[in-house]
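Request:
Um, any thoughts?
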Amino acid sequence: MADVSLTDLLRSLDDDAAAELERAHQAAADEADRLTREAAAEADRVRSAALAAAEQTGRREAARIVAAARTEAAAEVRAARAEALRAVRERGEQRLADLRAHPGYDEVLAGCLAEALAVLPEPVGVRVDRRDADRVRRLLPGTQPADLTITADLTAWGGCLVADDRGRYVDDTLETRLATAWPAQRAATATRWARAAAGAPEDRP
């Protein structure tokens, strides 16, 4: 597999979101069509039965039935989108959990180290998953203090946590990176879905 960066992985969720959107929209559209057809049939029946005695009452009841069906259909669409987002998030988590086995992981880990060390100019310790201890020793810049400790006590998909002697730390584990990036990713995906539902042209970078 080609080298892969964390940024590329996060961006790849867009493709998954598009596939999930197509599936979710098709399922929601089918259910909405069914609900609308049933509501229309029921509305026709109510109108026919009520016309002779109370036409106006029948129209109000028919409108209520159709409105309720539309509300239910909209709820189906919202539920389908929520499920699609959940599936995208789970797929992203699985990809990050598997990232350590990919050739590009060293580059990702080195980036996490560099980012965390840049925030804390006087680090005293680096905490990593035990599977990354040797990698971190190899990847640490030679400019770091010789007494910088490496503690392999994390259980993480990857990345690191760097601390200084004042109790400050930078959590640059992959779990935290995804948790930080996900709200914006979710909002952007939801916006694209809303635009697609409204018939607006897709606007992707």
The chain has two domains: 6-98+182-197, 103-178. The two ends are 25 Å apart (CA to CA). The longest strand covers residues 123-129.
